[in-house]
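Entry
Fold in token form

___
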Amino acid sequence: MPISWLLRPLRHRARKRLLAEPFPEAWLPILKGLPFYRALDERGQERIRDDLRVLIAEKEWEGCGGLELTDEIRVTIAAQASLLLMNIDHEYFYNVKTILVYPSAYRTMPRTDAAGVVQQGQANLGEAWQRGPVILSWDATLHWALDAKDGHNLVLHEFAHKLDMKTGAADGTRPLRDREQHAAWVATMTTEFNALRDAASRGRATVLDHYGATNPAEFFAVATECFFEKSARLRSRHPSLYALLSDYYQQDPAAPRRDA
């Protein structure tokens, strides 16, 4: 029996004890400063509060580039990641063990190309590694967290990649219930991805960021950002894509909500 199965009862008991404790009062103002959280109903806010506590407790958090981690950083990141989990069966991003946070844009590691030439790392705002950490830049994380309607959210993007990776590869295909659902997912996502690639090649404005035309994995992450942040426009212009993501996340963010 895998050791992870043996540890499940211990982990479950630890989570139960954690959630039996009062929610830290110092974290509430941080949450209330996030527009997406204020827009949720009471049940949704409660789910976010519970899940973010588990994510903060169970993940390894590391400040990089001289950044000193604070409650604001952990709560802001964990709360947004929890939005993806709110209504789906999950195991708290079991494939994320470490979250690395830089103060701002950072350079990726240098790499050696096929000719043996060392290529300098690129400036980056975030990454999600297949068998590694989620990496985020704090200034971009905070900027996009405070604007819940611009269609960009670094945390949603990178943690959507981690959901995608649950199938073993980042390819934009989710773990699905049955063959029929899988066929519907592939058909819709392929059609929408190809349409975005065509629009991007023609320089045509779209509700979906053109970065989603890079590959199917980036399309899923970009579509997830748009689903939560430009929900009404996505539902109007891409109803099939909106319905697909609504079924997966079990949320309907385009429905009437509290004023943010």
Remarks:
- Strands lie at 60-63, 98-102, 106-107, 111-112, 118-119, 123-124, 126-128, 134-137.
- The mean pLDDT is 89.
- The longest strand covers residues 98-102.
